[in-house]
Amino acid sequence: MKNKVDISDDLSRRIDMLAERSTLTRSQIIEDALSHGRSLAWQEKWIAGVQAGIEDADRGSFATDEDIAAVLNKYSQA
Question: Residue 15 in contact with residue 30, Cβ under 8 Å?
Answer without folding.
Answer: yes
